[in-house]
Amino acid sequence: MKRLKILIVDDEPITRLDLKEMLEENGYEVVGEGKNGNEAIEKARTLQPDLIIMDVKMPEMNGVKAASVIRGFSDCAVLLLTAYSYRELIEDAKKASINAYLVKPVKERELLPAIEIAFSQREQLQTLNEKVKKMEQKMEDRKKLKRQKAFS
Question: What are phi and psi of 82, to 5 degrees?
Answer without folding.
Answer: -155, 155
